Amino acid sequence: MAEHYSKSRSPASHGGNILATAKELGCPISELIDMSSNLTPLGIIPGLQEVLTGRLDEIGYLPETGSDTLSNMFAAKYDLSASQVLVGNGTTEYIYAIPAATQPERAIIINPTYSDYHLACQWAGIQVDNFALQEDDDFNLDLGTLGSVLHGRELVFLCNPNNPTGFVTPSAELYQFIQDHPETMFLVDESYLPFVRESSLLRFPIPDNLFVLASFSKIFCIPGLRLGFLVSAEKNMRVMAKRRKPWGVNRMAQIAGEYVLSKGDQYIEEVMQFLERERPRFINCLLELPHVEVIQGRANFILCCLTGPIRAPQLRQELLEHRVMIRNCDNFFGLDDRYFRMSLKERPDNDVCLNALRNILEGAP
Fold first, then answer.
1. pLDDT tens digits, 218-241
2. CATH of range 48-264; options 2.60.200.40, 3.40.640.10, 2.60.40.10, 2.60.120.10
3. Residue 302: beta bridge partners?
4. Based on the number of CB atoms within 10 Å of its own CB, is 71 exposed (0-12), middle (13-18) or buried (19 or more)?
5. What is the largest CA-CA distance in the chain?
6. What's 217's DSSP letter?
7. In CATH, what class is 12-43+265-362?
8. Which sequence spans correspond to the domains of the chain?
């Protein structure tokens, strides 16, 4: 369908720039409520800071060259071969590496979504075709329509749950779709999957045409350590391993990864239970506000559309006066200046945000 399928070049831009925002406002970081970055609402996993402090002397040693201990632990957790796993300096490392390594005829990016997928393909000289999700369908993904534009030899980027919409494609349906299109390579980014009750594609046998990205930054609140994983079939990983830099993961990130792999399951469960309570409450409060529509996703973040005279750039600036950061989404392909995104925090911070939104929106003409 032609309306789903167009070409674009979109710049990469991100939320969560709390250091620069605090400097701009002349306030301590502790005064800011950062709802622009899609991190866990419950903060850093308990116990990790103490472990890192206790082993701080290990920054005086070179880290493991290939993070073998960590890759072996990750492989064991998902019943994979260690040769199917690479550990990286965040998932961003592999978002940029895969187009360059695989050199597909074209890339298909399902939009709106994370903008670095576009930039990674542009840097690799890969043609980008954008498969645009429809606003009047809450940006839901129809796999049948996507399948109609695949002819093989392309690389499809798919974020699941999708950022910024929060839409989740059921993993069993997605896995079958990937198997049904063996001539197309898929990169599925599961950075936000730990926030929802949905099985990972890592629980299925990994076909030759699939790369899966897993992130620890978001769910365990360690974005400053930069830690992510790439999983694929062994033949694909041999190609990727040839391009891997030695010592690509710092020692503190390796230690953190080993800790959360052994201690993180209960924390993930607590996060999901919190979101199951808080997300519906927060959305109900949003729906009571004037000039706000909510896109019905499932992730730890919420995409909203403004229907009145105020627009997202203005709303972002006015919320900064209340020391609340949101993500203006007008630079996402397929969105405009009506859209903004908020990542849930603990309830007191969420209520500060809701009260600030109420004051701003009820005062708008």
1. 999 999 999 999 999 999 999 998
2. 3.40.640.10
3. 342
4. buried
5. 60
6. H
7. alpha beta
8. 12-43+265-362, 48-264
